[in-house]
Amino acid sequence: MCSTLPRALLALAFVAVVPQTATAAAQTVVMDALEAELARATKQLKLQDYDAPYHVAYTVKDVERRSLWGKVGAVHEDRARRTRQAYVDVRVGDYALDSSEDLEPDWPLEDSYEPTVALPLEASKEAIQHTLWLLSDVRYKQAIASYLKVRGQRVFQAGKKEERPSFSRAPVVRHRDAPVPCQFDRERWIRLVETASAVLASDPLVFDGAVHVEARCQRRWYADGPGTRLTTNQTIYALHLTAWARAPDGMLLERTWDRFAPTEAGIPAQREVLQAARDVVADLKALAVAPELGPYTGPALLEPPATGVFFHEVLGHRLEGHRQDDEEEGQTFADYLDKKIMPTWLSVSDDPTRRQHQGMPLNGHYRYDDEGVRAQHVSLVDRGILKGFLMGRRPVAGFSASNGHGRAEGLLDPVARMGNLVVEAHETVSRQALKKKLLEEARKQGRPYGLIVRDVTGGATNTSSYGFQAFKGQAHMVYRVDAQTGEETLVRGVDIVGTPLTSLNNILAASDETGVFNGYCGAESGMIPVSTVAPAVLFREIELQRAAQGRSRGPVLPAP
Q1: In the prediction, which pLDDT does 1 show?
Q2: Cα separation, 140 vs 417, whole angstroms
Q3: Which of 300, 143, 280, 136 is nearest to 210 (CA)?
């Protein structure tokens, strides 16, 4: 199960700024320690009568975090934390077949010792090497056990139509970002949390509301046996407004507003945030009196953020490389290469190298992935024809190399994931013309109305072979549009659902305006920052089901 969310589910962070000279010295010590221990592991790490590792790679992630949140005009939590941790990848075998093919390791449990992944925060080369030494030893022994198991299993397995290698070679690259301080204007954010949360609490209909300000500043070091050396920065600031209310019938209503930026200055000024808080309250008041919409099948227009979530869930996850030959995956598009899967006036790509779109920062930007490969623009669908997949260093048939999409949260194993998914329409109409087409399609189908979906707060999809190949989008601002007059009426209580192949081929038209959805996506390798860039899109037919919303009484007493 994969999901997309508009806000991070991780605690984001910061710590006091270290003097630049001390920071620079620390950066050198970390890479020196990685190189020293890597040299020992690649030359000497071998048990008698067993294979030596053919690939060793070290990653260190130093994360400074700061989080403020509050409600009803007061700060409730003020957290600061810093961690530095190591990820050690040791592979036994060779590029054709290695220990990573063991998907369910059953290593001996007599000795349950597992070394810590924590590294010293200060510049101690010896302490860093000590942790890497212990982790390398354990990972090597585990890799031997997994490799022998994989070799044994091959005796009983029927040959596949095309055996793929376990791992791909990658060009040696070297890059070093200069250290940057992790800024956090605590006084500014305290004032913002206090004032914005007071606005959310200003209407009695809103029984709860919160404001979160978060910062996460990561410094990463990567070194591997072939010679790649990377030192990179990734900083994301985030601001989240969330409020809850109940309709008269007891339905729980939720509205959110989120902004992300790579710099502290990129977060909107207080005036814009306070207006956003007032808009959140106004939306909840409108939803409370809006009629409930039952299950629906018919024409619908998705605004750009909703279109972005649709393509992320329906297409993006199903084009991640490792899903194309895994027997537990549905492999929806595995046999569609060079075949039409959507209208020929649509193209889809993924481009992590893009920093922004029309002035809006993109969450999914990065320069090098978590397997030491340079990020690349990848054409996935060219004018309706499937052309490629998102690739990490695990090959699939027909795609032997990574295109820089091996990504992971923290110390999880990287797999192919999206970065900035971009939907491009080669034939477009104005936003006004798109609504006109919606009304025409509704009348053509003999329906009294069509729908406009303006906001989707998140989504989920099931890509596994043992489940239904379906997706779901949490639609929070849906408008029923009268087929004759074009009058829009806000409705509530539905989610978008459907199946991939049918939904993609129900697309009729797209707008000449595009928008951005920024968020975090959760899958096997954890929660990672992602973005989509997409136009508004008209569907011939889309299905909405009744949302699973609780119906309870509101608070018995009035707010204090």
Answers
A1: 45
A2: 27
A3: 280
Q: What is the pLDDT of residues 166-201, one digit of tens each?
A: 999 999 999 999 999 999 999 999 999 999 999 999
Q: Residue type for 306, please? A: A
Q: Are the C-beta atoms of 160 and 101 separated by less than 8 Å? A: no
Using alpha carbons, list the distances in angstroms from residue 174 to 217, 222, 374, 405, 515.
Answer: 21, 10, 10, 18, 34
| Mean pLDDT of the chain, nearest integer | 90
**pLDDT 10s digits, 415-449:** 999 999 999 999 999 999 999 999 999 999 999 99
Q: What type of residue is 339?
A: K
Residue with tokens 């949260």: 409
In whole angstroms, what is the distance from residue 407 CA to residue 420 CA?
A: 13
Longest Cα–Cα distance of the chain, Å, equals 81
Helix %, strand %, coil % for the chain, to 5? 25, 40, 35
- SS (HEC) of 333-375: CCCCCCCECCCCCEEEEECCCCCEECCEECCCCCCECCCCCEC
pLDDT, mean of residues 116-124: 94
pLDDT digits (tens, 9 = 90+) for 468-518: 556 777 788 999 999 999 999 999 988 888 777 788 999 999 999 999 999
Q: Cβ(503)–Cβ(314) under 8 Å?
A: yes
For 68, how many CA atoms within 13 A lie in the half-sphere containing its CB? Answer: 21
Q: Is 184 exposed, middle or buried (0-12, 13-18, 19+ CB in 10 A)?
A: buried
Strand ranges (DSSP E) for 394-506? 406-407, 415-416, 420-425, 449-462, 470-482, 488-491, 494-498
Rama region for 250: left / alpha / beta (φ>0; ψ in -120 to 50; rest): left
CA dist 91 and 315 (Å) reads 32
* Full-model pTM: 0.91
Distance of CA 8 to CAs 194, 440, 458, Å?
Answer: 21, 40, 12
- Mean pLDDT, range 290-306, rounded to an integer: 92
